[in-house]
Amino acid sequence: MKKTAVAHTNIALIKYWGKRDEKLILPANSSLSLTLDQFYTKTTVEWRTDLDADRFVLDGEELQDAKVTRFMEIIRKQFATQQYASIVSENHVPTAAGLASSASAFAALSAAATAALGYDLSNEELSKLARQGSGSASRSIYGDFAIWEKGALADGSDSFAHPLHSNLTKEIAMVVAVVSDKKKKVSSRVGMKSTVETSPFFTAWIERSAVDLEDMKRALSAGDFVKVGEIAERNAMRMHATTLGAEPPFTYFQPLSLEIMDIVREMRHNGIPAYFTMDAGPNVKVICLRKDEQQIQTRLKEIISQVYICHAGEGVKVVNEDE
Amino acid sequence: MKKTAVAHTNIALIKYWGKRDEKLILPANSSLSLTLDQFYTKTTVEWRTDLDADRFVLDGEELQDAKVTRFMEIIRKQFATQQYASIVSENHVPTAAGLASSASAFAALSAAATAALGYDLSNEELSKLARQGSGSASRSIYGDFAIWEKGALADGSDSFAHPLHSNLTKEIAMVVAVVSDKKKKVSSRVGMKSTVETSPFFTAWIERSAVDLEDMKRALSAGDFVKVGEIAERNAMRMHATTLGAEPPFTYFQPLSLEIMDIVREMRHNGIPAYFTMDAGPNVKVICLRKDEQQIQTRLKEIISQVYICHAGEGVKVVNEDE
Questions:
Q1: pLDDT the model gives residue B180
Q2: Alpha-carbon dihedral of residues B36, B38, B44, B45, nearest 10 degrees?
Q3: Chain segment A288-307, per-residue pLDDT in tens
Q4: Cα–Cα dist A205/A191, whole Å
Q5: Cβ contacts (< 8 Å) between B201 and chain A: which residues?
Q6: Same domain assignment for residues B137 and B214
């Protein structure tokens, strides 16, 4: 059977940073994100009896990808199949630029692969499965705002995402400034692991991100955009602080990232409510209101060429019924 | 009586960051520094019966400086004089550029003011006094390496610096890259206070800086330059991590600071033992061996105009006997 699914990336406003279980991809903290409408992955999976290994084609190029291979083994085990699959993906995301292409990739792969096996999984089941490919993929199952609960159980069965309603969904925008679309020097997996193992700030990060999450839930429920922005900015900077504490220290900041953050502060000083967040890469995402998005894009285009305006996007869906 | 003293700046390898007493300038952690030969303050103090306020002239310009006024009050109280003084200072330091001009300033002022009153204070007494003008001034009493012990007493009587011997004194160099000589947006006093009050990482910073200090003392005693560099770099990055955790978050990093840090990492990758440290400002100080200093200066001059080579400098001294 062959099925195609589409999933969108998401950007965390409360960051996922640090695992409590490397193998099951269980996080040390809960996180909260906004799914974006502009960046997505479209993936077709066909389970075939004539293959003796999975075939993975990304944007027209056949690849060996250890994360994909590992994930397909998890699916075969969970759904008790011996077959291999042909996987054809189109990534509408600047890859490995810290724009969380693995979130949309594993969300789409989870949906397409299970649908092609004839399953109609609940979002909760899909979220739990996608999490095992890439942690942040657990949130891309949902549109708009989503919370990935870290859970407490050792087997990960209570670690999945759920949607969160907010009146800000129709007002909020994210202006994504692509500082670099080159592959990062320190991947998020490696950076996270080094931080957990060597940064003296990791414990305080986990404690405070729980406070940030509760504050953020309240701000989203109240529709208080300024609070949402302030909490997101402080949470992101705290995540980046932990990497400077690692041994050896490292940072995802690049000179242009700092320039953009300065521009955002300056615009805020001039009365535009705009805040920044950054993930495990140099790109800066500006959290703003839709009414200000054009002005912010125009200003950022003065120093950078790739600047995208995004709104709240949809959750994962199976888009056709090929066979 | 009129006396002149000269004191040099120092750069901390284990940073002083956070006060336990704002008024007495008592630090939350002990720190360790290298006094530099290139940057100094020369100050002449004359106690006069014909003045009804202190007069302060810095680099030929008469100024009202709240920190100097406050410090002169401390001296009048401690040494039981009612007189006011004429203070004439020359600052051979790019002022307020994070090059610790206040360290050399208050060390020189302490020595000149007390000598002009007829006192011949011990280094320990001078260090304790200078500390009350600016914390890092306590270390500029000494040449070469110095440790400012935080002390435990509430009155500050055990919080002063002492010298530390190392065979590296004649081999070590610091290449100072002046990213900006503009006054900083967030002064070190304000940045420190905000960090102590709002950063969730402050407690871990204090705990780990004690470990870094012990490691550094061992590395200096052993003459292990690579360890000295590694410990200094990780300690500095941990200090800067705390500011990203503050509320609101802030950073002393500027785009050029990051570029210089990248260059240092690249040179290290190419076999030159070089490490960076940064204080509460955008300038980057490269810790290296004298044999590599020229090469490092040449490389940094490709992107920045003001690059100074410094060696270990001398402690404070009274330079003449005017009257």
A1: 83
A2: -20
A3: 999 999 999 999 999 999 99
A4: 15
A5: 200-201, 204-205, 238, 241, 245
A6: no
- Same domain membership, residue B225 and residue B266: yes
B112 lies in the same domain as B188: no
Choose the mutation target among A244, A268, A304 for the interface with B, i.e. most B CBs under 10 Å: A244
Nearest-Cα distance to chain B for A137, in Å, is 27
Q: Which of A166, A187, A219 is the last residue of a domain?
A: A166
Task: Name the H helices within A56-168.
Answer: 66-78, 101-116, 123-131
pTM of the full structure:
0.94
Geometric angle at alpha carbon B185, from B42 and A303, rounded to 5°: 125
Does residue A100 form part of some domain? yes
Q: Does the pLDDT at position A321 exceed 70?
A: no
Same domain, B194 and B105: no
Which residue, A121, A148, A166, sits at the end of a domain?
Answer: A166
Find, in chain A, the residue whose alpha carbon is nearest to that of B253.
A258
The answer as to whether B264 is a domain residue is: yes
What are the phi and psi torsion angles at A181 (to 5°)?
-105, 15
A36 part of a folded domain? yes
Q: At B150, is the secondary structure helix, strand, or coil?
A: coil
Tens digit of each residue's pLDDT (9 = 90 or more) over B117-157: 999 999 999 999 999 999 999 999 999 999 999 999 999 99
Domain housing B267:
168-310
CA of B201 vs chain A CAs: smallest distance (Å): 6
Strands A31-48 and A145-148: antiparallel
Domain count, chain A: 2
- CB distance A255–B251 less than 8 Å? no
CB contact at 8 A, A72 and A45: no
Q: From chain B, pick out residues whose CB is under 8 angstroms from the CB of A208.
A: 200, 245
Size of interface A-B (CB pairs under 8 A): 81
Q: Is residue B322 part of a domain?
A: no
Enumerate the residues of chain A whose CB falls inside 8 A of the CB of residue B284.
Answer: none
Q: Is the pLDDT of residue A252 over 90?
A: yes
B259, B303: one domain? yes
Percent of chain A with pLDDT over 90: 92
- Buried residues in B208-233 as b, exposed as e (16+ CB within 10 A): bbeebbebbbebbeeebbeebbbbbb
Confidence of residue B321 (pLDDT cuts 50, 70, 90): low
